[in-house]
Design goal:
about 325 residues, mainly alpha
């Protein structure tokens, strides 16, 4: 139960499998253009291009939190795509620490909404990485730091659009956490109240946003929610299809689209998607051999489980 508690809470206070930093309204320096191009590269698994953009950001904008958030995001995607090793984790934490150092130079009473949002990112992902190594004490420490900024952001969603993402996730997963893990209820009762339907509403706002990164994150979490929590496979597939159309080379989105189709008993459609996943993996020269095999391996395991559950002449051949 200890591990379930930590797993749930870190997920609750994180921004999921990846995070983005969203574009400022006014920018004449070229930072936003680089940022937008860089995230498109990351989302399409063009990691060599993303690395070159990271170097350009460090050279031109060494004192910008966004520079290091971008770098951290790039390394997180590498970790999530199978390149999970000591060096990748070290680079990920180094980038997050750089953001923290820059934010800590600001006075507490002068923090902008964007600063609050960035603090939430930093501490939630530091906690999540610690959890991967089962360093529970460190994970709790980072979560406590995260809470201060997360709870301060509540009620400010109309003033700063990206707060719809963090508030939406909190509202949805706090309620479902109580339902999934009843022993956690006494602890969860100490946290600010939540409304599951409001959580969905906030996330749909993100999905409909004109900010491409925020829209992508909204679609991603709605895909996950309808594929794993409030099961509605066709709706989950709608969101995964949107993500695949926007970022056709993103192997995580493509794998999830395959997976949700298979769970919805649409085997033929799932196999078509599996072929796309396979081709996108082996033909992407910006991936390591580990990354090229990672999602293919996950999909093959899903197919094995499917055929065990649905034995047929076809599956035995």
């Amino acid at each position: 139960m200890k591990r379930h508690c930590l797993t749930y809470l870190v997920f609750l206070f994180s921004i999921g499998n990846c995070f983005s930093s969203f574009l400022s309204v006014a920018d004449t320096s070229g930072l936003n253009k680089l940022f937008s191009t860089g995230f498109a590269a990351i989302y399409n698994f063009k990691f060599h291009l993303a690395d070159s953009i990271a170097e350009e950001l460090k050279e031109k904008f060494p004192m910008e939190e966004k520079t290091y958030l971008f770098i951290a995001n790039s390394y997180w995607w590498k970790i999530r795509s199978g390149e999970d090793n000591a060096n990748t984790r070290k680079q990920f934490m180094t980038a997050l620490t750089s953001v923290e150092v820059l934010l800590d130079k600001k006075k507490r009473n002068e923090l902008s909404y964007e600063d609050l949002f960035n603090y939430i990112h930093v501490y939630s992902y530091m906690a999540r990485l610690e959890l991967l190594d089962e360093n529970y004490f460190n994970a709790f420490s980072y979560m406590n730091k995260c809470n201060m900024y997360l709870f301060t952001s509540f009620g400010k969603e109309l003033s700063y659009e990206p707060f719809n993402l963090t508030t939406g996730l909190y509202n949805f997963y706090l309620v479902t956490g109580k339902q999934k893990y009843p022993p956690l209820i006494p602890f969860l009762m100490l946290l600010p109240s939540a409304d599951k339907e409001m959580g969905i509403k906030y996330l749909k706002r993100c999905s409909e946003s004109s900010d491409e990164n925020l829209q992508t994150e909204g679609n991603y979490f709605l895909m996950i929610i309808y594929g794993e929590s409030d099961i509605n496979y066709p709706l989950s597939a709608d969101y995964s299809e949107k993500l695949c159309k926007k970022y056709p080379l993103n192997l995580l989105y493509r794998y999830y689209h395959f997976s949700v189709l298979l769970q919805d008993e649409k085997k033929d459609d799932a196999l078509v998607e599996y072929n796309q996943l396979y081709l996108s993996s082996i033909m992407n020269k910006e991936l390591s051999s580990i990354q090229q095999k990672y999602f293919i391996s996950l999909a093959q395991k899903d197919l094995e489980k499917y055929y065990i559950k649905h034995p047929s002449k076809e599956s035995r051949n």
